[in-house]
TrEMBL record:
InterPro entries: GlcNAc_PI_deacetylase-related, LmbE-like_dom_sf. This is N-acetylglucosaminylphosphatidylinositol deacetylase. Belongs to the PIGL family. It holds the Pfam family PIG-L. GO terms for cellular component: membrane. Gene3D superfamilies: LmbE-like (3.40.50.10320). One of its GO terms (molecular function) is N-acetylglucosaminylphosphatidylinositol deacetylase activity. PANTHER family: N-ACETYLGLUCOSAMINYL-PHOSPHATIDYLINOSITOL DE-N-ACETYLASE (PTHR12993:SF11), N-ACETYLGLUCOSAMINYL-PHOSPHATIDYLINOSITOL DE-N-ACETYLASE-RELATED (PTHR12993). Signal peptide: none annotated. GO terms for biological process: GPI anchor biosynthetic process. Its EC number is 3.5.1.89.
Amino acid sequence: METMWLLCVAAAVLAWGFLWVWDSSERMKSREQGGRLGAESRTLLVIAHPDDEAMFFAPTVLGLARLRHWVYLLCFSAGNYYNQGETRKKELLQSCDVLGIPLSSVMIIDNRDFPDDPGMQWDTEHVARLLLQHIEVNGINDHANTVASVAITGHHSS
């Protein structure tokens, strides 16, 4: 009886050891494949103004960084509604640094065509032209993410 119990324990330990090694091997393979694919992936985040990257995209950016995606950020205004545009641009760059977006991959469009004014309408065709140009210049090959910031922040496109 004691021998049978010992054999059962040995079998359980061997099975557990086999599953543990197999699971570790599968996780390692998955990580290697994810790293390889991610290193080639270029993702674009499109926001209306500074702070959207943190309010809407922080978990997404952190997840993409973990998968080794190259993340770009395109911000359509400096967030100057309360005459704090320079401060908000600096805060955006600091936030991107913390989130792991290289500062060389951040573009802030500080242009009178895209004022941070909920009462103003942005020209949809102008937005689309700049967006497509940014995608082409930076070789965005994975996807572009944006939020419905038009509805949320009041920036309506005409």
